[in-house]
Design brief:
There is one protein chain. By secondary structure, this protein is α+β, with helices and mostly antiparallel strands. A 7-stranded antiparallel beta sheet has the order 4-10-5-6-7-8-9. The protein has a 3-stranded antiparallel beta sheet with strand order 1-2-3. The protein folds into 2 domains: 32 residues; 154 residues, endopeptidase fold (from Nostoc punctiforme) (Alpha-Beta Complex). 26% of the residues lie in helices and 25% in strands. It is elongated. The longest helix has 30 residues. It holds the Pfam family CHAP. This is Peptidase C51 domain-containing protein. GO terms for molecular function: ligase activity. It comes from Tumebacillus flagellatus.
Length: 191
């Protein structure tokens, strides 16, 4: 009798498993964020071969991520960003502003910026998106937020793959990407 119940259980399980898996996959697909399907508001202009321009500042291949942030800020907001940032990595920008550490020239420039942990503020265009040391081989990573949509942000970056534009999901002010530490914003742009 036990053998018959065991055989019946295995048969029912074998027949119902593919149906249950398909149902679960369909439900999971419905719950996935659709943030990757944003329509650009025109702030980011495509150039060629994975490169883009935002406010006239072009992304480039084969350069460090901090170079783009430095070029963006020194061009649009002179005197705000340490020229030729001498910090060892992108995460040092977070440490210099949010944690008041004297790294990479930030001791004399932190008065221009405010740091917000991921999810604690509404992100804005021109914010610097900072990643912790789990990204960039231990150096961290930095990108510029170019567009903000209800469910996504569009960032421009360098040294993180061939395509320098990425769309990241945004849920309740939290940017969903591995290693996001937070944003750094110019105090003059803080709303």
């Amino acid at each position: 009798m036990r053998r018959m119940w065991l055989i019946l259980f295995v048969l029912v399980l074998g027949v119902s498993t593919p149906y249950a898996v398909k149902r679960w996959e369909a439900g999971a697909a419905e719950k996935r964020p659709t943030a990757l399907e944003v329509v650009s508001n025109g702030a980011v202009q495509p150039l060629q071969d994975g490169l883009y321009s935002y406010k006239g500042i072009d992304t480039r291949h084969d350069l460090q991520c901090v170079e783009y942030a430095e070029r963006f800020y020194t061009t649009l907001y002179p005197q705000s960003f340490p020229f030729h940032n001498s910090g060892p990595g992108a995460y040092d920008i977070w440490e210099g502003v949010a944690e008041n550490k004297d790294v990479g020239g930030w001791a004399s420039h932190r008065q221009f910026f405010t740091a917000y942990e991921n999810g604690t503020t509404v992100v804005q265009p021109d914010d610097m998106l900072l990643y912790d040391r789990t990204r960039g081989g231990g150096w961290g990573h930095i990108a510029i937020i170019a567009e903000v949509h209800p469910d996504a942000v569009v960032i421009l970056e360098q040294n993180s793959g061939h395509d320098t534009r990425k769309v990241l999901p945004l849920v309740e002010n939290r940017i969903l990407d591995r290693g996001v530490k937070g944003v750094i914003r110019l105090k003059t742009k803080d709303k």
